[in-house]
Amino acid sequence: MKKTLHKLTFIAMTLLTVQISFGQLVVVPLSNATGGTPHYGIGSGNREFPINNINDPFLYDPDTPTNTWPNTNASADPQNNYFQASATAADNWWECVVSIPTGKSIKYMDFYGRDYNGTNSGQVNRFINIKITLSNGGVDPDEVFNWSGLPESIYNDGIADNNHARMDFVAQGFSATMLQKATSIRLDHISDNDGAHLEFMELRLAAESTLGVDDLKATKLVVSPNPLEAGNQLMISLTNNSNDSNKLLQVYSIIGKEVYKTNIEGNDFSIDYNVFPSAGLYLVKIGSFVSKVIIK
User: Fold this and answer.
1) Is the pLDDT higher at 35 or at 189?
2) What gap in Å lies between CA 100 and CA 283, rounded to an integer?
């Protein structure tokens, strides 16, 4: 028999106070970009429109963000390629509206700088030390963290396409609430000098599915016996089955790691005790329905 689970009550209470992410990355739509005064001036025809930093039509896949690339050649089309802010405290910023899909939480920012290919070399000091602000329109206090950016040892290596950095919002310290409810993101360059314009070619945000307290209250997914002991099958039943067409059964550990998945048919089925790698608390999920089970 697997090792007896200890402190089940503590773990169950912990589960009710945290959110568990499931790592299913999706694109977060970005729009309505604004910024400070352009470095070359308004009407110059040179890098003056903030929307250019999010509108390159490359195929962005958040699971493989470097599989395809935006146009990062700064000299090819300076009018439409990207926006470059003036390097002053008042103007060295960029902002846009974010539309986080329902049930998702922002996870990553994918940040694309200039190519590094000699004459079009990236400005390393424009690709680091960025203040990031997330806001949900004043419902909660804005959250601000400083991101160091892409290390020069990685960026300045002569490889043309090595101009991508991925920032993890959770690792930076943003709250779960803000990562689900943010309506805008703003970038400010921390440095204020002529060599440190806020400069990037494209920016994308990726979100992942998040299971919160409300999801744990789903009552249409019934599991038994609970707790489950060795030698038994876990019986699973979808009662009052809705129109949810997702018939993928997934099992997650308490830290959000997927340990099992299978396609299912009908509303009643079972899974074996050996599906669960160890004793503990697990979540069984079918579409939007979730239930927890204790494995002994």
Assistant:
1) 35
2) 24
The type of residue at 286 is I
* Residue pair 198/113 in contact by the 8 Å Cβ criterion: no
- Amino acid (1-letter code) at residue 265: E
Rounded to whole angstroms, the Cα distance separating 94 from 186 reads 6
Closest CA relative to residue 150, chosen from 138, 141, 163: 163
Which amino acid, residue 124?
V
| C-alpha dist (Å) from residue 101 to 75, 105, 106, 132, 251 | 35, 8, 9, 21, 23
Residue-range domains of the chain with CATH: 8-18+213-295 (2.60.40), 21-211 (2.60.120.260)
CB neighbour list of residue 51: distance below 8 Å, 6 or more residues apart: 33, 83
3-state secondary structure (DSSP) of residue 180:
helix
According to DSSP, the residues that pair with 188 across neighbouring strands are 93, 131
Q: Let me know: does 167 contact 203? Beta carbons within 8 Å.
A: no
Q: Is 169 helix (H, G, I), strand (E, B) or coil?
A: helix
In the chain, the DSSP E strands lie at: 20-21, 26-28, 30-35, 93-98, 104-112, 128-135, 143-149, 164-168, 184-189, 202-211, 221-224, 233-238, 248-253, 258-263, 268-272, 280-286, 289-295
Number of H helices, E strands in the chain: 5, 17
Residue written as token pair 């090819």 = 76
Q: What is the pTM of this model?
A: 0.64
- Answer whether 295's CB lies under 8 Å from 227's CB: yes
What are 132-172's pLDDT values in tens digits? 999 999 999 999 999 877 654 454 444 555 577 788 898 88
